[in-house]
C-alpha cells in the first residue's frame, strides 16, 4: 500500500499540565485543539502504523487535552487515546488486519495513528466498529474494577455517574455475576433504564435526602466498594455511610469539589480506605496473561449484546472542532470521530 | 493470697459513643469518670486477675472515655487500656508473676484489672515499671507501623505529632534502621530534641511556609509513608506534596479539622492512598508468632535505653480526678496512674 505523505489530524495546541481541575466538560475545543495537516507518522522499531477507521472520545481524552490527566500534553501531537483501524505499517503479522488499539506515539483523532506492536488487539469479524473503537478504555476498566468488587466479597457495590458508558458496562457485569450495583445518578430520568439494565437500586442525588436513602440501602446490601467517577462531597458522605471495611475507589473527577473527610476515624476503627484506579497502572501490574483473556471476554460480550454501545454521535474529523462540544454535552451515549469524513 | 471484696477504681460514667470529635484533650474528668469503690472483678474461664502496679494513660484512653474511640463505653466499668501488675487470679502458670497487659473485661485505672490469659506479657526483671506499664499501646504500634515504613522501600518517612511518646519511639526506630524520620511538630522548641534523637529533619508547622519546606525536603528524601496522628488540613497538604505511591496512614485525630482532598486525582495518577492503622485490628491480622517476638524487641529496647519513657507524672489514683487533666496538658512526656496511692 502506498501511504500519503500528509494527513488530517486534531492536534493539541498546548504542552504539559494545566494545573487546573475543571472536569471533563468541553465548552469549546479551540483552546486545546486545532485541525491541521501534518506528516503521517513513520513507525520505528516495534511500532505499528494504523489507518484509523473510527476513534473513541472518552472523558479521559478531555481530561488529557485540558492538561488535567496523568500524562503531559505535547503540542502538535494528535489527541485521542483509542480507536479501531487497519494496520498499514510496521513489522507485524497483523499487517492488513482490523485491530483495536491504544495510541502510543501519535493519537487516534487523525487519519493515521501509531502504537506499539505489542498493544494491537485483533478484532473478531462479527464485532461492530463502534464496539471495536471503544473496547479498550471503558470495557477494560470495567472488567478490572469489577475484580475489586468480586474480591470485596460483598453482594453488591456502589457506583456513581452510573449512567455513563462505563457505568452501564459495570451494571451489566454486576447483573451477570449476581452482584448488583447500587447506582447513583443525578437525574431521576436515568433511573428506569438503569434498573432495567440490572441495577439493584438507584439513588438520585437530586432527590430529597439521598443520603438517608443510601444509609437504608447500605444497611440491607452491605456494599464494600464504592466506584467513584465524581469525587464530590456527596461521594465522601456515601463512603462514610458505608459499612466496615469499605473502599472508596476513585477513577474520575466529574466534580470540581474538594471533598472533606468528616469522619477520618473510620479509616482507623472501621478499616476503610481511599484509593485510586488507573487503567495504565493496572495494565503494568496485572498478570500479562490476563489482558488477551480480557479482550476475548470484551468482544464476546459486545457480540452477544451482553454489552451495548450507546451512541451519542459520530462526528466527522473535518467538523470535530465545531461539533464535538455539542455531542459530548448529550446526557447519555458515547461520541466517536470518523477520520475519513 | 486473700483478695479484698472491694477496690477503688476510676469508672466510666457514660455509655456508648458520644458522636463528637473533640480530640484527646481532657479539660475536666468529671463528665466522663468517677472515683468509686466497686467489687473486685472475678476471673471467669480463660481470664486472669491482675493487681495493678502502674497504669498508663494514652491518648486512646482519653478518646475512649470521651466516647470517640472504636469501642463503646460501658458505664460503671473501670477505664484504662494498659498497665503492669502481678497476676493474682486465674488458671495460669503466670500466677504471682509481673506482667504487662491490655485490659479486656475490666480496665487498668483501678486496684485490680482483668484480661484474657492469652494476653499476659511476662516482664523481664530488669524492665522498669514505667516502661512495663506502657510497653503495649505505643511501642507495639510503633513497631507495627514501622513495618509499613520498611515495606514502602523509601529511605525516610514523615511523622507528625512527632514530639509525642509514640513519635519519639518511631524516630528512634528510624534512626536505628537507617530510615530517618522527617518529623512534623507544632513548636520550634521541640525541634532540637528530635534532631538529637535521630530525626533527619524537623518541620515546624508554626513557622513561615512549612509546606514549602516540606516540598523541598520531600524532593530530596522521597518519603512514601506519612504516619499521621493529627488529621488536619496541613496533613492533607503534606500528603499531596509527597511523591508517587505515597500512603497517608492515619492512626489518631489530635485535630478537629475535616481535611479537604484538594488533589484527589493523585490517587488515580500517582497511586497514592489514604488508610488507617488500628493496633486492635493489626493484632488480629498479624502472624501470631510476631507478637511475642515484638515484646522481646520492646523490652530489649527499653532495657538497653534504645527507647526511653519520658515521664510527665505519676498521678495517685485517689487524686486522679483532680490531677489528671493538668498532667495530661504537659507538652511532653507520658502520664501514669498509681492505684496504690
From TrEMBL, chains A, B:
InterPro entries: ADH-like_C, ADH-like_N, GroES-like_sf, Mito_Enoyl-ACP_Reductase, NAD(P)-bd_dom_sf
Similarity comment text for this entry: Belongs to the zinc-containing alcohol dehydrogenase family. Quinone oxidoreductase subfamily.
The Alcohol dehydrogenase-like C-terminal domain, residue ranges: 166-288
Enzyme Commission number: 1.3.1.103
Pfam families: ADH_N, ADH_zinc_N
Keywords noted in UniProt: NADP, Oxidoreductase, Transit peptide
One of the GO biological process terms: fatty acid metabolic process
Protein name: 2-haloacrylate reductase
Organism annotation: Yoonia vestfoldensis
A molecular function GO annotation: 2-chloroacrylate reductase activity
Domain Alcohol dehydrogenase-like N-terminal: start-end pairs: 44-122
Amino acid at each position: 500500500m502506498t501511504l500519503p505523505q500528509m494527513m488530517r489530524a486534531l492536534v493539541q495546541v498546548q504542552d504539559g499540565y494545566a494545573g487546573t481541575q475543571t472536569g471533563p466538560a468541553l465548552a469549546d475545543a479551540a483552546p486545546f485543539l486545532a485541525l491541521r495537516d501534518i506528516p503521517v507518522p513513520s513507525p520505528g522499531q516495534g511500532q505499528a502504523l494504523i489507518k484509523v477507521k473510527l476513534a473513541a472520545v472518552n472523558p479521559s481524552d478531555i481530561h488529557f487535552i485540558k492538561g488535567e490527566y496523568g500524562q503531559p500534553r505535547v503540542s502538535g501531537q494528535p489527541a485521542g487515546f483509542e480507536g479501531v483501524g487497519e494496520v498499514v505499517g510496521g513489522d507485524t503479522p497483523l499487517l492488513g488486519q482490523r485491530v483495536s488499539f491504544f495510541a502510543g506515539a501519535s493519537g487516534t483523532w487523525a487519519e493515521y495513528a501509531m502504537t506499539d506492536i505489542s498493544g494491537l488487539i485483533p478484532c473478531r469479524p462479527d464485532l461492530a466498529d463502534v464496539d471495536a473503537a471503544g473496547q479498550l478504555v471503558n470495557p477494560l476498566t470495567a472488567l478490572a474494577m469489577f475484580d475489586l468488587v468480586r474480591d470485596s466479597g460483598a453482594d453488591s457495590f456502589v457506583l456513581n455517574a452510573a449512567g455513563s458508558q462505563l457505568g452501564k458496562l459495570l451494571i451489566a457485569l454486576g447483573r451477570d455475576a449476581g452482584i448488583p450495583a447500587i447506582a447513583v445518578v443525578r437525574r431521576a430520568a436515568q433511573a428506569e433504564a438503569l434498573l432495567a439494565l440490572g441495577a439493584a437500586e438507584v439513588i438520585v442525588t437530586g432527590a430529597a435526602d439521598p443520603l438517608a436513602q443510601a444509609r437504608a440501602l447500605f444497611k440491607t446490601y452491605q456494599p464494600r466498594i464504592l466506584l467513584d467517577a465524581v469525587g464530590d462531597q456527596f461521594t465522601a458522605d456515601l463512603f462514610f455511610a458505608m459499612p466496615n471495611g469499605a473502599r472508596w475507589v476513585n477513577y474520575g473527577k466529574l466534580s470540581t469539589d474538594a471533598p472533606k473527610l468528616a469522619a477520618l476515624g473510620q479509616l482507623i476503627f472501621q478499616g476503610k480506605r481511599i484509593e485510586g484506579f488507573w487503567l495504565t497502572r493496572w495494565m503494568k501490574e496485572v498478570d500479562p496473561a490476563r489482558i488477551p483473556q480480557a479482550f476475548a471476554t470484551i468482544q464476546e460480550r459486545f457480540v452477544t449484546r451482553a454489552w451495548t454501545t450507546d451512541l451519542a454521535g459520530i462526528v466527522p474529523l473535518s467538523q470535530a472542532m465545531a461539533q464535538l462540544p455539542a455531542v459530548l454535552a448529550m446526557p447519555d451515549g458515547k461520541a466517536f470521530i470518523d477520520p475519513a469524513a
